[in-house]
Amino acid sequence: MTRVILNGTIKGLSGRLGNLIFRQMPDGTTVVTQAKPKKNSRQKRRAKERRSDRQKAHNERFSDASSYGKVYQTNPVYIQLAKVTPMHTAYNFAVSEWWHAPEILRIERKGKYIRVEATDNIQVTRVRVTLLDKDGKVLERGKRSKVKETGGGIRRKQMAGLSLLKPGICPITRPSLF
User: Fold this and answer.
1) For residue range 116-139, what is the model confidence (pLDDT) as tens digits?
2) Same domain, 113 and 148
3) What range does the domain containing 150 cover?
């Protein structure tokens, strides 16, 4: 990539100049890209009509993620992560959180406890476990919100030890992460 060192009069240049677009990045660098040729309304309409159902569904999901990002970019967790991560904003973290669902890594039963290990790309705030019988009837519910951070980077894990009131029952467990 070519680097250009500009003098003081051009240093803060951003926006469009002819066919070139100048962007100021959060780390202070300036990126210059060539603008795509503008499409007329007929070309835009035809491109929209040619999209497959999967493309349309993806566009809808991206619109939802963008809306979520706009609303939750003021969340203190996202703001804190944006401060320590160069080239990312709180909005980027909020959109990333929307796209990446939490994952349950392990469920184990030890005596009268059920232990759930869950991870998410930003943070797991709580884990809820519902114990069901064979017919799907709820036997017991429990939740845990203490977070134990492990590993490096921004990946967060949570180990939840949930106490069972009826340890003699061998339940079907259905953990949820919301």
Assistant:
1) 888 888 887 778 888 788 888 887
2) yes
3) 100-176
